[in-house]
């Protein structure tokens, strides 16, 4: 139960108040009050430990007694606070509110982690804390505080998963990471799932320099070991070795190439003046009613644009085996598959953080920051508008494999 503070106490504390500085300044009431409360609480803890009040005759002959004070400085949200910590003669007193060895008041570490999660470097965090709180914080302290996040990352990366996810998007971000003294471009692979309620959930992050069937088999087995038994549709962006790996671990899963990425890849070959002209012809392919109609639209596209942009038709034909599954689905499911707003929203949040950092010293540093960015982004987007319709279609198309969430 929260402690009640009487109005008379507030009135007494605010006597002489003239400006915000009187409350919030370096010598303001808040900081003084925090110091006094902490010291009184430490005194109360020592009384509890000894079993008698200060000056109480009951303490005579008890075998332990008060033994003055030691000075201690702790860092809080409003800067350093100098405390007088009571001692006992037997040195058996273990303070709780400010423990032995504790140099920071609860909440200060969270402030460091919050700054780190926004993409600030260690030097920038140092400068920011000095500017705000007039405290000198060492790089080692900042590293220790942020490294503690790695335990959270490992716990998150190994948490149990739902037995079924109707749709999982597998995609990658490129980041610069130091490796053997050189800065290399590495891919951070992200699995973003839609659960049976249509809610978005990041299942994990994996860093690998080169993708391939061996790497993806490791990822698929990891998901399986965490409790995932089935994926209805896996949406991928031409990830090498992925179809083979997923077929090994989840043989019933339909692998679908990401249409949005295929369109972007196609437009990379197109001049600006032709983009508005070419888009309706690309839409005619992926919005076709059937696979046969889509194939005819692709032929028509190549007849019109093939001489000027031969690479586009070639790209679609190379991916055609994994484009075709789209046409077996009704419109509600198709829209969920090729509308990648959730993926793009997540990527925008992550890229905003990454671009401020340049390069990362280690793989762990990159994972740590990306995990914090995901956690702080609050991946709780609203489920797709079409999800209720899609659920019915999933039940028809996939039968017993799809069970609506009971949550």
Features:
single chain; 407 residues; alpha/beta; five-stranded mixed beta sheet; two-stranded antiparallel ribbon
Instruction: Please write the string of helix (H) and strand (E) elements.
Output: HHHEEHHHHEEEHEHEHHHHHHHH
Catalogue the unreliable spans.
none
Specify the biggest β-sheet.
Answer: 5 strands, mixed
Put simply, the count of helices is 17
**Helix/strand-derived class?**
alpha/beta
Approximate shape: elongated
Describe the model.
This protein is an alpha/beta fold. It has a domain at 162-401. It is 48% helix and 17% strand. It has helices at residues 7-13, 20-24, 29-50, 108-117, 122-133, 139-147, 149-157, 213-225, 242-249, 259-267, 272-286, 291-305, 310-323, 331-338, 341-354, 363-377, 387-398; strands at residues 66-76, 79-88, 164-179, 182-194, 200-208, 230-236, 254-257. The strands form 2 sheets. It has a 5-stranded mixed sheet with strand order 5-4-3-6-7, with helices on both faces. The longest helix has 22 residues, at 29-50.
Could you provide a short overview of the structure?
This protein has 407 residues and is α/β, with parallel strands linked by helices.
Write the layout of secondary structure elements.
Layout: H1 7-13, H2 20-24, H3 29-50, E1 66-76, E2 79-88, H4 108-117, H5 122-133, H6 139-147, H7 149-157, E3 164-179, E4 182-194, E5 200-208, H8 213-225, E6 230-236, H9 242-249, E7 254-257, H10 259-267, H11 272-286, H12 291-305, H13 310-323, H14 331-338, H15 341-354, H16 363-377, H17 387-398
Parallel strand pairs: 3-6, 6-7
Antiparallel strand pairs: 1-2, 3-4, 4-5
């Amino acid at each position: 139960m929260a402690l009640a503070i009487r109005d008379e106490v507030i009135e007494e504390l605010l006597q002489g108040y003239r400006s915000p500085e009187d409350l919030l300044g370096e010598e303001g009431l808040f900081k003084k009050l925090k110091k006094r409360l902490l010291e009184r609480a430490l005194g109360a803890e020592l009384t509890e430990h000894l079993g008698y009040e200060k000056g109480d005759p009951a303490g005579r002959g008890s075998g332990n007694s008060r033994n003055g004070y030691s000075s201690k400085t702790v860092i809080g949200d409003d800067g350093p606070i100098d405390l007088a910590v009571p001692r006992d003669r037997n040195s058996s007193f273990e303070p709780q509110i400010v423990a032995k060895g504790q140099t920071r008041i609860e909440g200060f570490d969270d402030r460091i982690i919050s700054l780190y999660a926004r993409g600030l470097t260690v030097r920038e965090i140092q400068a920011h804390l000095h500017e705000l709180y007039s405290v000198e914080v060492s790089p080692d302290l900042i590293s220790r505080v942020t490294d503690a996040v790695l335990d959270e990352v490992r716990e998150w990366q190994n948490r149990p998963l739902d037995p079924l996810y109707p749709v999982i998007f597998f995609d990658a971000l490129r980041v610069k990471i130091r490796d053997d003294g050189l800065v290399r471009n590495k891919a951070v692979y992200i699995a973003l799932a839609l659960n049976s309620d249509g809610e978005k959930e990041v299942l994990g992050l994996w860093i690998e320099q080169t993708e391939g069937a061996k790497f993806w088999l490791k990822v698929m087995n990891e998901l399986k070991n965490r409790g995932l038994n089935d994926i209805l549709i896996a949406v991928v962006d031409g990830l090498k070795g992925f179809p083979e790996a997923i077929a090994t671990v989840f043989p019933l899963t339909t692998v679908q190439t990401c249409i949005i990425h295929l369109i972007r890849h196609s437009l990379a070959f197109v001049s600006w003046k032709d983009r508005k002209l070419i888009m309706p012809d690309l839409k005619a392919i992926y919005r076709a009613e059937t696979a046969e109609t889509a194939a005819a639209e692709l032929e028509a596209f190549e007849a019109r644009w093939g001489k000027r942009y031969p690479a586009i038709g070639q790209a679609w034909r190379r991916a055609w085996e994994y484009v075709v599954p789209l046409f077996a689905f009704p419109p509600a499911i198709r829209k969920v598959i090729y509308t990648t707003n959730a993926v793009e929203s997540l990527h925008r949040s992550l890229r905003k953080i990454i671009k401020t950092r340049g390069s990362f010293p280690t793989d762990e540093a990159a994972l740590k920051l990306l995990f914090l960015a995901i956690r702080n982004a609050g991946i709780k987007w609203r489920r797709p508008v079409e999800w209720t319709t899609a659920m019915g279609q999933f039940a028809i198309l996939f039968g017993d494999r799809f069970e609506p969430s009971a949550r």
